[in-house]
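Q: Joint fold for the lines below.
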Amino acid sequence: MAEVYQKDIQLDDYSKEDLVTFYREMVKIRKFDENLIRLMHEGKVSGFYHSGIGSEGLSVGSIVKNLRDEDYLYYNHRGCNQKIAKGVPLSKLYGDFLGTVEGTTRGLGAGIVHSADTSRGVLGQAGTIGSQFNIAVGSAYSAKLQNTNRVTVVYFGDGAASREPLHGSLNWAGLYNLPIIYICENNEYAISSRWDETHSVREHIADWAWGYGISNCVVDGNDVLLMNEVTKEAVDRAKRGEGPTFIEAKTFRHRGHFEGDTYDYVDQEELKDWKENRDPIKNFKNLLLENNICVENEFTRVDEEVDQEILEAIAKAESSPMPDEKRIYEGLFA
Ligand SMILES: Cc1ncc(C[n+]2csc(CCOP(=O)(O)OP(=O)(O)O)c2C)c(N)n1
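A: Joint structure:
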C-alpha cells in the first residue's frame, strides 16, 4: 500500500538561487491570487474563483525545477498555481479573467478553467472535473509512440479522484507503462464533503494506484523541497521508460471552495493550524532564515519585486482591448 515519502534533504544540495526561486514563485502565486480577489471585490472580475492559497508549495515544488516547456500539463480548477509555476505570463492569466485580448483565449474570458498555453505545454482542463484523466492518457500515449521523452503531469483534487475516469486512466497508464504523473492535491474537502466520507480507500487515495500496479506515495504537499524531490524521481522514472507514478500530496485550502463560500463546514481549529503552522511559504522562509541562507531584507526585496511584477501584469491586461465580436466565431467548426 502507499507509503509516506520521506527524504533527508540537505539544503547544501541546492544552490541559493534555486532556493530563492522556489520562494519567489510561491510568493508570486499567492500575490497573484490575492490581487485577483481584490479585482473581484472591485467589481472588475466576475464569476467563480477557486483560490489556491495554501497550496503554493505543491505546484512550485513539483513543476519549477522538473518540467520543461515541452512537458504536458493539465491543471486543476484551484487557483492558477500550476499555470504560473509552468511559466504562463501573469498578464495573460489576468487577461483571461478580465476578458481582454491579452488573455490566452484572446478575449473569450476563460477564468481559470478554459485557458491553455500550448507553447508552455499547458494543455488545459476539461470542463467537468475528472474528464482530463483520459485526455492525459492520450498525450502520454502519443509521447510514447513518438518516442519523445515528454512527460505528462495531471493535477486533480481528492473529489475529482472519486470519479470513475481516474480508474480508466490508471488502467491504461499501468497497462501501457505510460510516462504520466498523477498529482492528487488532497486538501481533504470537495466543496463541503470530506474525502474520507466519499472514497472507498480507507487510508490513502494513492492506494488505488497500488491496485493498478502503479508506483505511488503520499507526501506533505506543503513542503516545497519534498515536492521537488518526489516529482523529480517520478519524472526521471517516466523518462527512463519505467512508467507512471501517482503522488498524493496532502494540503489544505486557506479559503472556501469558491470566493463567497462561508467555509464554516471545516473545523476552525484545524484551519487555524494549517494557516499558522503549515503554511508552505512561511515555513520555507523560516527554514532559509534558520539556516542562514537568506536574511529578512532579501525576502523583502523579492516581495517588492513580485508586487511590481503583478501590478505591471494587471496594467497590461487591463489596458488591452476587449475582443472584436468576430472573435466568438473563431475556432468554431460546426
Ligand atoms: C463532473 C463534475 N461534477 C461536479 C462539478 C462541480 N464541482 C466543481 S469543483 C468541485 C469539487 C472538487 O473537489 P476536489 O476535486 O477535491 O478539488 P478542490 O475543489 O477541493 O480543490 C465540484 C463538485 C464539476 N465541475 N464536474
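Q: Anything notable?
A: The beta strands are 3-4, 72-74, 122-124, 152-157, 180-186, 189-190, 193-194, 215-220, 245-250. The CA atoms of residues 169 and 283 lie 35 Å apart.
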